[in-house]
Amino acid sequence: MKRSKYTLRRRALSFFRVFTVVIILSVLFVGLGTTMTARKIKRDIEQSLPPIRDLDHLEDKRITRFLSSDGKLIATLFKENYKPVKFEDMGDNIKNAVVAIEDARFYQHNGVDYRSVARAAVQNALAGRIQQGASTITMQLARHLYLSDEQSYERKIKEALLARKIEQEYGKDKILERYLNEVYFGAGSMGIGAASSRYFKKTPDQLTVAQAALLAGLIQSPTYLNPLTNHRGARYRQIQVLTALRDNDYITGQEFRDSLDEARQADFDELTPEAGRPLLKYPYFTTYSMKKAIDAFGEKKVYEGGLTIRTTLDLKAQKHMESVLTEMLGRYGGSYGVNNGAAVLIENKTGHIKALVGGKNWRSGDRFNRATQALRQPGSTFKPLLYTAALERGYTQDTLLNDGEVKWVVKDGNKTKVWKPINSDGREKGKIPMREALRLSRNQATVDLAQKVGVWSLLDMAERTGIKSELPRVPSLALGTGEVTPLDMATAYSCFANQGTFHEPTVLTLVTDAENQKLADMSHGWSRQATSPEVAEQTVDMMLRVASRGTGAAAFIPGLQIAGKTGTTDSFKDAWFVGFTPRYTLAVWMGNDDNSPTRHLYGGDLPARAWRKMMLGLPQGRQKTFDFLATTPVKRVYCKKSHRLKGADCKETYAETFRAPAPQTPKCTECKSTKVFDVNIGEVELPDPLQTRPDYPQARPVIL
Ligand SMILES: [Zn+2]
Questions:
Q1: Same domain, 232 and 363
Q2: How remote is the CA of residue 158 from the centroid of ligand 1, in Å?
Q3: Does 26 qualify as catalytic in the annotation?
Q4: 189, 259, 380, 642: which is the annotated catalytic residue?
Q5: Of 621, 655, 682, which closes a domain?
Q6: What values do phi and psi take at 139, rounded to 5?
Q7: Predicted confidence (pLDDT) at residue 379 exceeds the cutoff of 90
């Protein structure tokens, strides 16, 4: 038979019904108009009504998608799953089913169905509370679009008034279209488009009568009636909808029986309950990207704007680093008493964060991102910043430091405190060149250097290389007692790899809106020269030795230049290896979340090994050596006693190689039988620490 939504079965109104309607209507509307308070209430309500929004514009809530750097979908963001569908694309079955079960007189009333209002009013009065809604489709839409969900007579009246307004401005088709796009069908599906694809992998016009009946039935109680969890309840409701379809002449008796058969055979087991939820792969990386996107575009635009956001994520690198961290902690964490870690990978030339591992297990419910949020002491990984500050002031790799007793008197109000740092091996090496002090991570020599160049110059360098956390202005900062994130450490080191250029680390690149128009290209964050190329080259040259024959030798990879630094903090609470190849900077941190000490975990151990394993799985490209360093190193022979160039009388010597320009260093004078002092140079040349460095903005000196 021809299904017509306009032909509704007429039912004779019984005398009782007419009587009730008259009574209720007079109470509701005539009554409101006759007393002063009631008139005031009505006026107040009318004045507080929100303006009717444009119903024509369907697509104001869309899915924002996050893509990896090679265009794979890694995450989606939306309030609920939503696929807008136009009225003409919905097919008749779902329209008929929804009208039949939710509002059979939809095509007759003008927004408010007074018959149902009357019926509901009587029932509510009998029940003593608001039990039955009697909401028409238009009223439900009005509530959904403009009002809260609270149950009150005031809201009910507002709903009715708004429904009247909507009906005055829009046709029934437009109202039903918007309703079917707004209504929630459970399982994360908002609107019929999302629901059809969620439950049946179909578009709405492909739904059978039975399927349409099931979906229409869900509207009443989408969570409770979810067919995935309450199969019987959903089935029962489906039969109610089919009955309503038959009773309202939308389907014939035969179609009714066929649909019942179809409903009986339907199977929902194959549906995955997760399908309606937002996608969130590589959550440490993606949640950080979402935060950055919200910072840049605002929450509303990111959640509802249907943006496509391409990120810097290298899927392979991310998976690989995640598995290395989990495996290393799983296999060795127990014996070292360490339970967590983090790793950040930055591409040097671009500042792009290619991978970000914020912990070992997001799925366990632990959502703390150690890579970007954990503030931990960097220990000796902070030292290269101080050595770079010294190089800026004219110090060289050969400048001699005192790895002996070093005292720092600190003023604390009226009192003074004496700080006497010691080396981790408890020994002193006496005078030692800067390059050796860094390679062997000597604490006392480093504090000697900090006294010479000042803590303020270290603070200044930290700020210029991208350390964002608040650092304490204390002498021990030179040994890494300030707190930083792994991301900040990777950022700072990438400046050295980049010949002194700082790139703001970025995760977002190209952002387009729902119409595929370019919103922003964030591929190139801002950058600046943090230190001169000449200085950065000297730092890199010094750090190369750490991974080849220093404390970070466990990170060594034959055939690939690696510059880096280990870090181990007081009582073994934090262990780091931060290092870079020509292409990447990678920071690895390990420690316990409660800041309890590990069992003698050194940065040169598990972190350096994890670093090596991670780096081995990454594509390094053709460039295996730093292009700004000499391919053939300059070799020099030094006197072991004076650490000056070997003279004719020096007995014990050692060789040193330089890939950055070797420093100007005089010959040894100590080993001559008669000491000769060069009048121009003196015994040991030390540049003037107050020499101002050119070009860079000066930070304010800190008085300690
Ligand atoms: Zn000598």
A1: no
A2: 96
A3: no
A4: 380
A5: 621
A6: -65, -40
A7: yes
Q: How far is the CA of 636 from the centre of ligand 1 (A)?
A: 14
Asked if 147 contacts 159 with a C-beta cutoff of 8 angstroms, the reply is: yes
Residue 419 placed within a domain: yes
Residues 6+ apart with CB under 8 A from 325: 341, 342, 343, 357, 360, 588, 610, 614
441 and 516 inside one domain: no
What is the reported pLDDT for 15?
Answer: 42
Q: What is the rounded distance in angstroms from the CA atom of residue 702 to the CA atom of residue 704?
A: 6
CATH number at residue 204: 1.10.3810.10
Which residue, 333, 400, 355, is CA-closest to 587?
355
- Tell me how far CA of residue 317 lies from CA of 147, 285, 346, 380, in angstroms: 48, 12, 11, 27
Q: How far is the CA of 442 from the centre of ligand 1 (A)?
A: 23
Same-domain pairing of 478 and 500? no
Q: Is 685 a catalytic residue?
A: no
Q: What is the pLDDT of residues 408-455, one digit of tens each?
A: 988 878 888 899 999 989 999 999 999 999 999 999 999 999 999 999
What tens digit of pLDDT does each residue of 266-300 get?
A: 766 555 444 456 778 899 999 999 999 989 998 77
Tokens of 144: 């959904």
Alpha-helix runs per DSSP H in 170-298 = 172-182, 191-200, 209-218, 231-247, 253-265, 283-297
Here the CATH number for the domain that contains residue 597 is 3.40.710.10
CA distances in angstroms from 581 to 320, 355, 386, 540, 612, listed in the order given: 17, 15, 21, 10, 11
> Which tokens hold the place of 327?
């495996």
454-482 average pLDDT score: 95
What is the distance in A from the centroid of ligand 1 to the CA of 211?
93
Q: Which of 436, 452, 482 is the last residue of a domain?
A: 482
Bridge partners, residue 417, by sequence: 410
Residues 318 and 373 in one domain: yes
Domain count along the chain: 3
Q: Same structural domain for residues 338 and 456?
A: no
- 3 state DSSP class of 319: helix
**Is residue 465 helix, strand or coil?**
coil
Please name which of 401, 382, 96, 36 lies closest in space to residue 245, comparing C-alpha atoms: 96
Find the catalytic residue in 68, 69, 102, 159: 102
Question: How many Å apart are CA 580 and CA 494, to the nearest integer?
Answer: 7
The pLDDT value given to residue 63: 80
Q: Please say if the pLDDT value at position 85 is more than 70.
A: yes
Question: Distance from the CA of 653 to the center of ligand 1, in angstroms?
Answer: 8
Cβ neighbors of 251 (< 8 A, separation 6 or more) are 3, 96, 209, 242, 245, 259
Domain region containing 459:
386-482
Q: Is residue 290 part of a domain?
A: no
Half-sphere exposure of 254 (CA within 13 A, CB side): 1
Range of weakest confidence among 31-35, 191-195, 220-224, 384-388: 31-35
Flag whether 61 is in a domain: no
319 lies in the same domain as 358: yes
* Rounded CA separation 595/598 (Å): 9
Give residue 398 CA to ligand 1 midpoint distance, Å. Answer: 14
- Residue 673, in any domain of the structure: no
Q: Say yes or no: 317 and 431 in one domain.
A: no
Residue pair 95/3 in contact (Cβ under 8 Å)? The answer is no
The answer to whether 192 and 213 are in contact (CB under 8 A) is no
Check whether residue 579 and residue 609 sit in a common domain: yes
CA of 674 to the centre of ligand 1 (A): 12
Which among 229, 236, 665, 598 has a CA at the least distance from the CA of 433?
Answer: 665
401/407 Cα distance (integer angstroms):
14
Q: What 8-state DSSP symbol labels residue 614?
A: H
Q: What contacts 143, CB < 8 A, 6 or more positions away?
A: 135, 149, 155, 159
Distance 567 CA to ligand 1 centre (A): 33
With the C-alpha atoms ordered 479, 485, 488, 489, is the resulting torsion angle positive or negative?
A: positive
